[in-house]
Amino acid sequence: MSELLTIKDVAEILKVSQGTIRRMLDRGELKGIRIGRLWRIAQSEIDRLSHIKPK
Questions:
Q1: Helix-turn-helix domain spans which residues (predicted)?
Q2: Of 3, 32, 42, 50, whose CB neighbour count within 10 A is largest?
Q3: Poorest-pLDDT segment among 6-15, 18-27, 31-40, 42-51
Q4: What topology is assigned to 4-49 in CATH?
Q5: How many helices and strands in the chain, by DSSP H and E?
């Protein structure tokens, strides 16, 4: 199982704002697990995103 990261961790890795990560989760562009009010994102999901080139 992949390590679970916080929104803050993911934002720092991808060099975007935490708001951007939240929007990506809301739109389904980024898959995450909601635990109560908190989101957790698997490291494997970040690896998947790192292969996608921006437009």
A1: 4-48
A2: 32
A3: 42-51
A4: Molybdopterin biosynthesis moea protein, domain 2 (3.90.105)
A5: 3, 3
